[in-house]
Amino acid sequence: MSSDRRSRRLAFVAHCILNQNVRVAGGAHYPAVIDEVVDALRTHRVGLVQMPCPEFTFAALNRPAGTREDYDTPRFRRHCAKIAGSIADQVDQYAKNGFQVLAVLGIERSPSCGVEQTTTRPDGPNGEAEATSGQGIFIEELQREFDSRHLQVPFKGLDWRRVSKDVEELEGLLPP
To answer: What is the rounded distance in angstroms from the CA atom of residue 56 to the CA atom of residue 97?
Structure first.
Protein backbone atom coordinates (compact mmCIF):
# COMPACT_ATOMS: atom_id res chain seq x y z
CA MET A 1 0.00 0.00 0.00
CA SER A 2 1.37 3.39 -0.99
CA SER A 3 1.24 6.40 1.29
CA ASP A 4 2.20 8.81 -1.51
CA ARG A 5 -0.12 11.78 -1.10
CA ARG A 6 1.43 14.12 -3.66
CA SER A 7 -1.06 16.21 -5.60
CA ARG A 8 1.15 15.94 -8.70
CA ARG A 9 0.33 19.59 -9.49
CA LEU A 10 2.93 22.33 -9.66
CA ALA A 11 3.44 25.98 -10.46
CA PHE A 12 6.82 27.51 -11.23
CA VAL A 13 6.96 30.91 -9.58
CA ALA A 14 9.18 33.98 -9.85
CA HIS A 15 11.62 34.05 -6.97
CA CYS A 16 10.21 37.21 -5.40
CA ILE A 17 6.74 35.68 -5.00
CA LEU A 18 8.25 33.56 -2.24
CA ASN A 19 11.00 35.94 -1.18
CA GLN A 20 10.44 39.69 -1.37
CA ASN A 21 13.88 40.16 0.21
CA VAL A 22 15.46 39.60 -3.22
CA ARG A 23 13.85 42.75 -4.67
CA VAL A 24 15.87 45.92 -5.24
CA ALA A 25 15.92 48.36 -2.33
CA GLY A 26 12.56 50.11 -2.17
CA GLY A 27 10.93 47.56 -4.49
CA ALA A 28 9.38 45.11 -2.02
CA HIS A 29 5.64 45.38 -1.58
CA TYR A 30 5.30 42.63 1.05
CA PRO A 31 7.49 41.81 4.07
CA ALA A 32 8.23 38.23 2.98
CA VAL A 33 5.98 36.40 0.49
CA ILE A 34 3.02 37.45 -1.62
CA ASP A 35 0.53 35.86 0.76
CA GLU A 36 -2.51 35.84 -1.55
CA VAL A 37 -0.67 33.89 -4.25
CA VAL A 38 0.84 31.37 -1.84
CA ASP A 39 -2.53 30.90 -0.11
CA ALA A 40 -4.34 30.27 -3.42
CA LEU A 41 -1.78 27.70 -4.56
CA ARG A 42 -1.78 25.99 -1.17
CA THR A 43 -5.59 25.86 -1.11
CA HIS A 44 -5.58 24.16 -4.51
CA ARG A 45 -2.83 21.77 -3.36
CA VAL A 46 -0.34 23.04 -5.91
CA GLY A 47 3.36 22.61 -5.19
CA LEU A 48 5.53 25.68 -5.68
CA VAL A 49 8.84 25.58 -7.51
CA GLN A 50 10.80 28.77 -6.94
CA MET A 51 12.69 29.89 -10.04
CA PRO A 52 15.98 31.73 -9.48
CA CYS A 53 15.86 35.51 -9.72
CA PRO A 54 17.92 36.28 -12.81
CA GLU A 55 18.66 39.85 -11.70
CA PHE A 56 19.90 38.73 -8.26
CA THR A 57 22.02 35.88 -9.66
CA PHE A 58 23.46 38.24 -12.30
CA ALA A 59 23.89 41.56 -10.47
CA ALA A 60 23.65 40.66 -6.74
CA LEU A 61 21.39 42.02 -4.03
CA ASN A 62 22.54 45.64 -3.87
CA ARG A 63 21.95 46.25 -7.56
CA PRO A 64 20.31 49.43 -8.83
CA ALA A 65 16.79 49.29 -10.20
CA GLY A 66 17.03 48.52 -13.90
CA THR A 67 14.88 48.65 -16.99
CA ARG A 68 14.48 46.21 -19.83
CA GLU A 69 17.01 48.23 -21.81
CA ASP A 70 19.54 47.96 -18.98
CA TYR A 71 19.25 44.17 -18.93
CA ASP A 72 18.87 43.53 -22.66
CA THR A 73 22.49 42.60 -23.24
CA PRO A 74 23.99 39.46 -24.79
CA ARG A 75 25.59 38.52 -21.45
CA PHE A 76 22.33 38.82 -19.47
CA ARG A 77 20.40 36.96 -22.19
CA ARG A 78 22.91 34.09 -21.99
CA HIS A 79 22.48 34.09 -18.21
CA CYS A 80 18.68 33.94 -18.58
CA ALA A 81 18.88 31.27 -21.30
CA LYS A 82 20.96 29.08 -18.97
CA ILE A 83 18.38 29.41 -16.19
CA ALA A 84 15.58 28.84 -18.71
CA GLY A 85 17.21 25.59 -19.84
CA SER A 86 17.34 24.34 -16.26
CA ILE A 87 13.70 25.28 -15.63
CA ALA A 88 12.62 23.58 -18.88
CA ASP A 89 14.54 20.44 -17.84
CA GLN A 90 12.55 20.36 -14.60
CA VAL A 91 9.20 20.98 -16.31
CA ASP A 92 9.98 18.26 -18.84
CA GLN A 93 10.94 15.81 -16.08
CA TYR A 94 7.74 16.48 -14.15
CA ALA A 95 5.60 16.16 -17.28
CA LYS A 96 7.25 12.88 -18.31
CA ASN A 97 6.40 11.48 -14.87
CA GLY A 98 2.71 12.32 -14.86
CA PHE A 99 2.77 15.65 -13.03
CA GLN A 100 0.80 18.68 -14.17
CA VAL A 101 2.70 21.94 -14.44
CA LEU A 102 -0.25 24.32 -14.22
CA ALA A 103 1.46 27.68 -14.66
CA VAL A 104 4.59 29.77 -14.74
CA LEU A 105 4.04 32.87 -12.63
CA GLY A 106 5.97 36.01 -13.40
CA ILE A 107 5.90 39.54 -11.99
CA GLU A 108 4.48 42.30 -14.13
CA ARG A 109 6.59 45.41 -14.70
CA SER A 110 9.77 43.43 -14.09
CA PRO A 111 12.50 43.90 -16.69
CA SER A 112 13.20 40.17 -16.32
CA CYS A 113 10.02 38.41 -15.18
CA GLY A 114 7.25 40.52 -16.73
CA VAL A 115 4.77 38.38 -18.66
CA GLU A 116 2.63 41.07 -20.29
CA GLN A 117 4.31 44.20 -18.95
CA THR A 118 7.92 45.15 -18.44
CA THR A 119 9.68 48.30 -17.36
CA THR A 120 11.28 50.50 -19.96
CA ARG A 121 13.05 53.82 -20.07
CA PRO A 122 11.18 56.35 -22.21
CA ASP A 123 12.97 58.59 -24.65
CA GLY A 124 11.75 61.76 -22.89
CA PRO A 125 13.96 64.23 -21.00
CA ASN A 126 13.16 62.84 -17.53
CA GLY A 127 14.26 59.33 -18.47
CA GLU A 128 12.19 57.77 -15.69
CA ALA A 129 11.25 54.13 -16.08
CA GLU A 130 7.66 53.30 -16.92
CA ALA A 131 5.56 50.21 -17.52
CA THR A 132 5.07 49.16 -21.11
CA SER A 133 3.56 46.12 -22.80
CA GLY A 134 5.93 43.27 -23.51
CA GLN A 135 7.78 40.48 -21.78
CA GLY A 136 10.83 40.71 -19.57
CA ILE A 137 14.11 39.23 -20.79
CA PHE A 138 13.97 36.06 -18.65
CA ILE A 139 10.35 35.33 -19.58
CA GLU A 140 11.24 35.74 -23.28
CA GLU A 141 14.10 33.26 -22.92
CA LEU A 142 11.95 30.85 -20.90
CA GLN A 143 9.12 31.01 -23.46
CA ARG A 144 11.64 30.43 -26.27
CA GLU A 145 13.02 27.38 -24.47
CA PHE A 146 9.55 25.99 -23.78
CA ASP A 147 8.54 26.51 -27.41
CA SER A 148 11.66 24.72 -28.67
CA ARG A 149 10.75 21.71 -26.51
CA HIS A 150 7.01 21.90 -27.22
CA LEU A 151 6.23 22.41 -23.53
CA GLN A 152 2.70 23.77 -23.14
CA VAL A 153 2.45 25.69 -19.88
CA PRO A 154 0.45 28.90 -19.42
CA PHE A 155 2.36 31.98 -18.30
CA LYS A 156 0.58 34.35 -15.90
CA GLY A 157 1.88 37.68 -14.70
CA LEU A 158 1.08 39.00 -11.23
CA ASP A 159 0.96 42.68 -10.37
CA TRP A 160 1.00 43.80 -6.72
CA ARG A 161 -1.30 46.69 -7.69
CA ARG A 162 -4.06 44.26 -8.64
CA VAL A 163 -3.08 41.08 -6.82
CA SER A 164 -6.67 40.15 -5.83
CA LYS A 165 -7.80 40.24 -9.46
CA ASP A 166 -4.70 38.34 -10.60
CA VAL A 167 -5.23 35.65 -7.96
CA GLU A 168 -8.84 35.28 -9.09
CA GLU A 169 -7.62 34.77 -12.68
CA LEU A 170 -4.94 32.36 -11.46
CA GLU A 171 -7.53 30.29 -9.65
CA GLY A 172 -9.28 29.86 -13.00
CA LEU A 173 -6.19 27.94 -14.18
CA LEU A 174 -6.17 25.67 -11.12
CA PRO A 175 -8.17 22.49 -10.64
CA PRO A 176 -10.41 22.30 -7.55
So the answer is: 31
Taking only the tens place, the pLDDT of each residue in 64-100 is 999 999 999 999 999 999 999 999 999 999 999 999 9
For the entire predicted model, the pTM comes to 0.93
Q: Count Cα atoms within 13 angstroms, Cβ side, for 81.
A: 9
Q: Could you give the CA distance from residue 14 to residue 80 in angstroms, rounded to a whole number?
A: 13
